[in-house]
Design brief:
3 strands; about 90 residues; three-stranded antiparallel beta sheet; about 40% helix; alpha+beta; elongated
Length: about 90
């Protein structure tokens, strides 16, 4: 049986947000997480004059709608990982 794990990872953390039985369910959860991170980055951009380029890059990276192509390293990157679970 396959399960799909949705989480986000950075240089010093790996957080699992949810586990799904279907790839479609995982994709919906991944997109929700991506949008939350994107909103946080946009908010940080407005309030931070010093790291403007970094937050613009993060926003560009988090705007990618394909979990297989997304790369936001070394910042928080949402992911979907597929695992096979034995019953």
């Amino acid at each position: 049986m396959k399960v799909y794990v949705v989480g986000n990872a950075g240089p010093e953390h790996n957080t699992i947000h949810s586990i799904h039985k279907t790839q479609m369910g995982a994709l919906k959860a991944w997109n929700k997480l991506r949008l939350e991170l994107l909103t946080e980055a946009k908010s940080a951009l407005k309030g931070n004059k010093e790291d403007r380029e970094m937050y613009q890059r993060i926003i560009k990276n988090l705007s990618c709608k394909d979990p297989k192509k997304m790369s936001n390293y070394p910042h928080e990157t949402p992911y979907i990982r597929e695992y096979i679970v034995e019953e």
